């Protein structure tokens, strides 16, 4: 007597009973109309459906990764040697007993496996595991390249059509244009790159989803990149209210409200947003605690800031996470020195610089930052001070002053132990400035290579390498070899 079906068989039978496209359409439509509970309930019923994992946030990332890997196993269970088998069958003019429908089904499974690798790479990038993300990405590219050896045009069309139906690529494109592109400086210092495309998408979606917290959130991102900070704050507040049933979206809205408040140097509002994230979010309480502390200190509450900096050590959990490592080192240092409001403002300006947010600051706020930093004379922070002053002057268009500050930062040896990234970042910044003129282009390229090859083991090294790669690529476009 046969025993009960295995969980895998049950899942496969269940998957055959649902229409993937209809399930995706219903779930995404619910989510975009702020029906978060309904959407979550629907996808929970089909937990092994691959797109469910792409919709999971923050502390559920591990569950998302597990679900994606389970989906891979389900698809790969009978796929051993599938590419070679199908290639041989095609060479023999399909003189096998396996039908074309079965072959297409197997190829679809291969594409789903590759898609799972895409989403695993995205999750790795989101968790700041850049090297892991690149490794996984190369794996899915290898799978796609293998399947391209045979005629699977219909399968590719099926996958693309399905992906287009689920997302219409809208959310992915909005994320790319408003988060990835400006953050990694994929278009140099052009902070407006991609915004026209993002605005066109939002204009279309506003007609269908006028109150969607997700699209309102991305509207705020566009406004922030256009330096319309007050409008961005209003959009993030609206998105926060519409997302009353979705804690994760509330948290990304609070995060942006905190950042916009830092950009406006409204440290008290920034403190309140980051403090709530520190208490509610499970993603990186250590990082949020550090932001809470520097904003609290910058607002004048130095004793409160010291108490928060002591909490950072307790909240430090992920030793391999570069953001938490950075937050821990900074909090530990500020805890040991004679804390001043100026040092906390330095900490705020530093994260604005590292997260490419100085470009969103108004001239008046940049001038105010410049004024505060000029009065800072703490010896171990001089290199960092000059790097940030150079970045501020560059944003203000004072290139000569920017070059002078970057040169001083690059020469700083005393503060290298506390601020290991200052020298390579200074070389990068100086190199980018010199690229702007034909007569100094060669020197600029040399400095970029110096920043890439002469330094290692510093904070946010991967992040800088991506930006250096982008800058060097821009030279090749202008002066092709």
TrEMBL record:
Residues that span the membrane, as ranges: 155-176
Keyword presence, Transmembrane: yes
Keyword terms, alphabetized: Membrane, TPR repeat, Transmembrane, Transmembrane helix
Residue stretches in coiled coil: none
BP terms from Gene Ontology: cilium assembly; otolith morphogenesis
Matches recorded under Pfam families: Iml2-TPR_39
SUPFAM superfamilies xref list: TPR-like
Gene3D superfamilies in alphabetical order: Tetratricopeptide repeat domain
Family statement drawn from the similarity comment of this UniProt entry: Belongs to the TTC39 family.
PANTHER family: TETRATRICOPEPTIDE REPEAT PROTEIN 39 FAMILY MEMBER, TETRATRICOPEPTIDE REPEAT PROTEIN 39C
Protein name, UniProt field: Tetratricopeptide repeat domain 39C
Organism in which the protein naturally occurs: Cyprinus carpio (Common carp)
